[in-house]
Amino acid sequence: MTPDLEAAIKQCEQLGAINADKSLEWDQESLRSRVRSLIPTSGIPDHVVETLLANPRDESEDYRRLKEYMRTGTFLVLHGPVGTKKTTSACRYLFHRVRGKFVDATGYTEAHRDVSKQWHAADLLVLDDLGQENVEWGTKKINWLLRDRYNKERQTIITTNLSPGQVWDRYGNHIYDRIMEMGGFLEFEQRTREWHG
User: Fold this and answer.
1) 177-to-57, 142, 189 alpha-carbon distances in Å
2) Can you tell me the distance from the alpha carbon of 106 to that of 97, in angstroms, rounded to the nearest whole number?
3) Residue 100's beta-bridge partner residues?
4) Which of 70, 72, 84, 146 could form a disulfide with 188 if both were Cys (CB 3.0 to 4.6 A apart)?
């Protein structure tokens, strides 16, 4: 984490503790803008950045396990039902590392051909919602992306509602085996909000 980003996050934390004071509203927004400007190319969605700034620390067991896995692993799949903080946890990890990219698989289309080179080259990639991409086009491209990142030994965190068996069925044994070799699957089970689906 860069010193500027670390200082901005600490200032946001301090202001967040006393945000009931309306006189600090402008300062808090100013700091949030500063933090956003330090991670402009990561692709983390604005609503997730807001969540990270509002809750800068995550002491959950799931996040602790994610950090532990990523110390030694290259590929990690966070799987579980909707509402278990998989995306937020993956983005928090990315947020504190600065040099990385966030990709939403649901929007991974042929239109991303130019920027996909950045996704292949990123030191850390968060691929969100695996299994929600366009089946005809997206699945092939995601397979190619994951194989390339595996070959280059680049850290990759994947979030999905698919079970490990469903990942095997959809992406094949090559991707599944690479995930197991370079990291593994981490199940997120506890819902953090009520879900009506």
Assistant:
1) 33, 15, 23
2) 24
3) 124
4) 84
Q: How many CA atoms lie within 13 A of 125 on its CB side?
A: 27
- Between 9 and 20, name the one with better pLDDT: 9
Rounded to whole angstroms, how far apart are CA atoms 183 and 69? 7
Q: Distance between CA 134 and CA 137 in Å, rounded?
A: 6
Average pLDDT, the chain: 77
Torsion of CA 73, 77, 79, 84, to 10 degrees: 70
pLDDT in tens, 12-26: 555 554 444 444 444
| Contact predicate 178/146, CB 8 Å | yes
